[in-house]
């Protein structure tokens, strides 16, 4: 069991990580088209390696970047959404929609990217920075299910964004598929890069219907 002192150290660590992540995202939006958390002298080699990996994997990375870019994001709305913790024991909780959360000038028809990973949080953040995907995810929208499981993460997300018109989960595993079903989310199964491209078409179709 952790002590209050340990919890303070962890809180400080994550606060520092968030500040670094936020700073890197701002850097990404500047003139440098592909920020990576490496020394300037190493950036050219790292970017070349990333491009080579993308080419060898049927353009998974560039396709993901394209899909995430297609999602509308208004980060200001995130400050108005409470972050509610849902424990695994609350697996049968019923979510009540609160349309008032996502209504008002500048906050309608909003789509937000949320990431749920089985990996540890800090290595995941490092990967987002390394592969240039950090610009797509607000720091408060990155979840690790390593200790609590994806059902608990999905339930927390469902509560936090309860005013959203719909939620779509995208993944390649059974765990997230079951979690999405448990929370009443549409699930899109990804087996290859072409499946990922279909997500963009789905997003556009949903937007046109609105």
Would you mind describing this structure in some detail?
It is a single chain. Helix 6 (174-182) links the parallel strand 3 (168-171) and strand 4. The longest helix has 25 residues, at 4-28. Helix 3 packs parallel to helix 7 and helix 5 crosses helix 6. Helix content is 48%, strand content 7%. The protein has 7 helices and 4 strands; from the N terminus they run αααβαβαβαβα. The chain is mainly alpha-helical. The radius of gyration is 18 Å and the shape is globular. The strands form 2 sheets. It has a two-stranded parallel sheet. It has a two-stranded parallel sheet with strand order 3-4. It has helices at 4-28, 40-56, 60-70, 121-130, 150-160, 174-182, 193-209, and strands at 115-117, 142-144, 168-171, 186-189.
Q: Kindly report how far apart the N and C termini lie.
A: 49 Å
Shape: globular
Q: What's the total count of β strands?
A: 4
- Mean pLDDT figure: 75
Q: Unreliable runs, pLDDT <50, ≥5 residues?
A: 30-35, 82-109
CA radius of gyration is 18 Å
Would you list the SSEs in sequence order as H and E? HHHEHEHEHEH
Count of helical regions: 7
Major sheet size, sense and barrel closure: 2 strands, parallel
Structural class by secondary-structure content: mainly alpha
Helix fraction, binned, reads 40-55%
């Amino acid at each position: 069991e952790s002590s209050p002192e340990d919890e303070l150290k962890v809180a400080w660590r994550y606060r520092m990580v968030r500040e670094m992540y936020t700073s890197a995202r701002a850097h990404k939006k500047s003139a440098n088209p592909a920020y990576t958390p490496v020394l300037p002298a190493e950036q050219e080699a790292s970017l070349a390696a990333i491009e080579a990996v993308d080419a060898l994997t049927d353009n998974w990375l560039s396709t993901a970047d394209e899909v995430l870019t297609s999602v509308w994001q208004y980060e200001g709305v995130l400050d108005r959404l409470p972050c509610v913790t849902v424990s695994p024991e609350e697996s049968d909780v019923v979510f009540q929609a609160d349309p008032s959360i996502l209504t008002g000038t500048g906050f309608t028809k909003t789509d937000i990217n949320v990431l749920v990973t089985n990996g540890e949080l800090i290595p995941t953040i490092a990967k987002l920075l390394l592969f240039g995907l950090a610009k797509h995810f607000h720091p408060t929208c990155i979840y690790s299910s390593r200790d609590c499981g994806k059902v608990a993460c999905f339930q927390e997300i469902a509560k936090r964004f309860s005013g959203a018109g719909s939620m779509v989960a995208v993944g390649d595993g059974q765990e997230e598929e079951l979690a999405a079903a448990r929370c009443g989310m549409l699930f899109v199964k990804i087996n290859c890069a072409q499946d990922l491209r279909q997500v963009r078409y789905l997003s556009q179709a949903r937007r046109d219907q609105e």
